[in-house]
Amino acid sequence: MNMPLLTVKDLRISFAGKEVVHGIDFSIAPGEKLALVGESGSGKTITALSLLRLVQNAEVSGTAVFQSPKGEVELLGMPERLLRGIRGQDIAMIFQEPMTALNPLFSIGNQIEEILALKQGMAHRIRAQAAIKLLADTGITEPERRANCYPHQLSGGQRQRAMIAMALACNPKLLLADEPTTALDVTVRTQILNLLADLQRKNGMAVLMITHDLNLVRRFADRIAVMESGVIVEQGAVNHVFARPQHAYTKKLMDSKPVRDVQEAPANASLPPVMQAKNLRVSYPVSVPGFKGWFKTGEFVAVQGASFNIPAGQTLGVIGESGSGKSSLALAALGLHPSKGELDVAGKSWNGNAANNKAIRKAVQVVFQDPFSSLSPRMTVEQIVGEGLAVHQPHIKAVQTQQRVLQALQEVGMTLVQFPGLLQRYPHEFSGGQRQRIAIARALMVEPQLLVLDEPTSALDVTIQKQILQLLQRLQRERGLSYLLITHDVDVIRAMAHQVMVLKDGVVLEAGPLAQIMDSPAHPYTRTLVAAQD
After folding, report:
1. I want to staple 379 with a disulfide (CB 3.0 to 4.6 A). Which of 114, 383, 403, 446 is the partner?
2. pLDDT of residue 534
3. Domain span holding position 123
4. What is the pLDDT of residue 341?
5. DSSP 3-state assignment of 450?
6. How far apart are CA 179 and CA 186, in angstroms?
């Protein structure tokens, strides 16, 4: 009964003769939750993928002994034909980025049904109902309707929940979870963790959790293994490692919680608001079922009656779970989706006039959640950062543009000394944190008054997240920038925001100063958000 479900010994992974994982050992018992923690590039994900031999062109050695229902098997050496029977059935995987892992040509329900058909041989009617139940179990509202949706029609959190439903479809004995809650808000994160815990109790499922979220590790995992540069530097019981970390790298990770360093009362607070909204309404057309849909379309209201203002040099933090309307609010603020009500940016309103809108676009810029997908892979750093000048100040000479690009990059902490040939490099040559710095430099080039920050750190490691938040805090103090901060992370709100607005189902539940909303929330939903993070 004490035999490990999975035993990995001397696992080594190389590419073209260069070793990236250096002889690591670990084991997982049935029903155990092991968290593999480390920064990007430490080897966490590639370790998990190599167990199912999903890494192309990798040279893998060592042993990975798995106790399958049919007996003991060695995963790294077994024939591919037999390994296919293990994948998805006995060992399942939740991938980090659901938008690239899900097939855009098939509905969510069809993709779950495909697994049930291939692995369990279910009849069509039975597996259709099973797919809906799996979606409901992961906390997706209206699972019958969502099952007929395509990936692009779901929010990031909903797509991640659909991925989790697919992974759990066959009740696997071992779940490899690669950042399974990165895109989820704190309340849904709790739901998912509770769901995984319930499945463990029912099926004895073990979980190898790959994450950089230390709050999640503390609440969910039994044991932790800390990985740095392809080596496990420390492992043990979660309570023991958190209370008495031994390795310097572990201590560094534990000390990476966001720190508040903002100007509480900006000197220019008397200036008019940079952005002001009153009774803002954002909606989308939807098809009407039946023959009525031939003659008219319906409407889905994403934001209803939101009113707020953002003073110069201050941050409005907008918090809420996936589907609450945060991103729709950001799109309206950026003039990328039509809205009703009043919305003024730097004293002007979005309208159909190109010249008017161009002036507003100079005043408000955006930093997206995923810097890799928001930066063109075909453009160099110089072209990416200087693109705004080409649009808003086309008369500037090439030499001057290059100088301003270098100045903007230096302001976000990237210099030619650190990165030789920086201007001619492409986004894939940088880490996630470095790409986000490039995205911030691009936004700063046209000297905006307001930055819309859409989950600017959720895709980053905790140590890099802290650095990016410190950078944004410094830029706000030095430039007097205003921020519209979209996030589901209460710690980020505490570190950055002056005012907080809580959204749920498109409605503002409460709004006010940071201390009032975070320390004495009036609405039960806000109390749930704060308690879930704590």
Report:
1. 383
2. 63
3. 102-171
4. 93
5. strand
6. 14
